[in-house]
Specification:
The chain is α/β, with parallel strands linked by helices and 373 residues long. Among the domains are: 73 residues, no CATH class; 169 residues, Rossmann fold (3-Layer(aba) Sandwich). The chain is built from 16 helices and nine strands. The strands form two sheets. A six-stranded mixed β-sheet has the order 6-5-4-7-8-9, sandwiched between helices. Strands 1-3-2 form a three-stranded antiparallel β-sheet. Helix 1 runs antiparallel to helix 4 and helix 7 packs parallel to helix 9. The two termini are 39 Å apart. 30% of the residues are buried.
């Protein structure tokens, strides 16, 4: 048995002992106690004692009972006779209305679990769908893929940074701030201060190649862009082929099919040729200073098959590199293990790209989570 597992078992036994002596301890309190133990010196018994008493929210009148049980379970003075003491029912004085509400909540929770279990199939095709190339998807699979792309966009939008910030409600117990706050009440801990990881919403500029060579990938990739537009505030979307078109305000994230039809009709030379250099030049001249800074990730989605000026593409990539925090190039052709980035456009852009990654299936798109700031 590992040390961590043994500590968890001991904590569960201790919580059961508290309950058996009419000290009200819930599952959430046990989780808080487990987190608290990761924040203190486990070799310092006084620090562990204080952390557990705070995490379990032990009322003052029960401190003597808590101290006795702490010595039995953590001090080694008396070995507990039973690994899990038999619990004693709580005496709750909240009244029949509150009991009725608690019972209703329990019934709702159980019903939700039963519905979730009934809806869960014994076999899911999702893993296979995530690995299937976009060009091989059927019409039904395309619809399912759009839903998976929306879930991926939500994951990208709700990532947590490593930085911890004060939080209300749920979160990790902040013992230092809890103790500081208790100074104002003569040492009484009226509430536990908590902290959580800050929501790390990215700032994105997406440049999508809508030329003819990208046709088989366009629907799913743009569906992913539309989903990002729905859940991320700071995202700008551009379509390019022989000209650049800003489509951020033209998209309707809830209506993917209609949006794609409108874009196909409104974006010049949709499914035509590709002049990446001249399109990026339009972006650099018209939008670079306003939309891109060191906190921005620029994502270019293209197969790099360029019919334009490679030197112009190089200059534009240099300009992007000078301002962007990160440049990611997603190339669907990289799904073929034989692919080499030797096309003129790809070769010109590659020295200025932070990450060159595939974009031929949903699994490859999930790699974007690792690269975006």
């Amino acid at each position: 048995m590992s040390d961590a597992h043994g500590l968890t078992v001991q904590l569960a036994k201790f919580a059961a002992a508290l309950r058996s002596h009419s000290i009200r301890v819930g599952l959430g309190d046990e989780l808080d106690a487990g987190i608290a133990l990761t924040l203190v010196d486990l070799l310092d018994r006084q620090e562990v004692h204080r952390a557990l008493r705070i995490a379990f929210k032990v009322p003052h009148e029960a401190w003597a009972t808590f101290d006795k049980l702490f010595e039995e379970y953590w001090g080694g003075t008396v070995a507990p006779q039973s690994p899990v003491p038999r619990p004693v029912p709580f005496q709750d004085h909240r009244g029949p209305v509150q009991w009725k509400w608690d019972g209703q909540r329990v019934r709702i929770a159980v019903a939700e679990v039963e519905v979730a279990d009934a809806a869960s199939p014994a076999y899911s095709a999702e893993p296979l769908l995530r690995q299937k190339p976009f060009e091989e998807l059927s019409a039904a699979e395309l619809a399912a893929m759009e839903r998976l792309a929306a879930r991926l966009a939500l994951r990208l939008a709700t990532r947590r940074s490593r930085r911890l910030i004060p939080a209300r409600g749920r979160g990790m117990v902040d013992l230092r701030r809890s103790f500081r706050d208790a100074l104002a009440t003569q040492g009484e801990l009226l509430a536990l201060a908590r902290r959580t990881r800050e929501l790390d919403e990215p700032r994105l500029v997406l440049l999508y190649d809508t030329s003819g060579s990208m046709d088989v990938y366009t629907r799913v990739l743009l569906a992913f862009a539309l989903a990002l537009r729905r859940v991320i505030k700071r995202v700008e979307i551009f379509a390019f082929n022989t000209a650049l078109t800003r489509i951020t305000r033209l998209v309707a994230p809830a209506k993917i099919s209609q949006t794609l039809e409108r874009l196909a009709a409104g974006v010049p030379d949709w499914s035509g040729g590709t002049r990446i250099g001249s399109c990026l030049a339009q972006f650099v001249d018209g939008y670079l200073s306003a939309m891109v800074d060191h906190a921005t990730t620029v994502v270019i989605v293209s197969d790099g098959l360029d019919l334009g000026d490679a030197q112009l593409l190089t200059r534009c990539m240099q300009a992007l590199r000078s301002r962007a925090g990160r440049i990611i190039w997603l190339n669907p052709l990289m799904g073929d293990p034989r692919y080499q980035p030797t096309a003129a456009g790809m070769s010109a852009a590659l020295p200025y790209v932070d990450h060159l990654a595939p974009a031929h299936n949903l699994e490859s798109l999930e790699g974007l989570l690792r690269f975006v700031k």
